[in-house]
Amino acid sequence: MPTLGNRWDAEPPPCLTLMTGQYDDDYVHYCPSDMEPSLYTVKAVLIMDNDGERLYAKYYDDTYPTVKEQKAFEKNIFNKTHRTDSEIALLEGLTVVYKSNIDLYFYVIGSSHENEAMLYIFI
């Protein structure tokens, strides 16, 4: 009996550029090979105080493997987000969803391809 093989054995499908409107600049570029499939929706969860100090941090992958890199990333996130009213930011190629509550800041970090609404569920 012939086997179809694992879908990872085949080459990835080609990239597509789709026109979405009547103008030449209305298009969507979709490239499946750019998005590696993963079950890991959340890359990190952070809780910081109102001075930007880490109260809790859990990283679920090796994007920032050392504590020094993690703290530098956390400082960058806090500096860019603690004075804004928005709840979503794109920093260092990652999607950052956050919420402040009195003197605490809650952050959920995912990949740049991740749906912000899915990440916001965790807050």
Description:
The structure is a single chain. The chain has helices at residues 67-81, 116-120, and strands at 16-19, 27-30, 44-49, 54-59, 88-91, 94-101, 104-111. It is built from two helices and seven strands. The chain has a domain at 44-120: Beta-Lactamase. The protein has a five-stranded antiparallel sheet. Strands 1-2 form a two-stranded antiparallel ribbon. Residues 1-8 have low confidence and may be disordered. The protein is of the alpha+beta class. Residues 41-119 form the AP complex mu/sigma subunit domain.
Structural class: alpha+beta
User: Could you tell me the radius of gyration in angstroms?
Assistant: 19 Å
Q: If you average the pLDDT, what whole number results? A: 78
H/E series? EEEEHEEEH
Low-confidence stretches: 1-8
Do you know the CATH architecture of the domain at 44-120? 2-Layer Sandwich
Order of adjacent strands in the largest pleated sheet:
4-3-7-6-5
Summarize the model shown.
The protein has 123 residues and is α+β, with helices and mostly antiparallel strands. 16% of the residues lie in helices and 33% in strands.
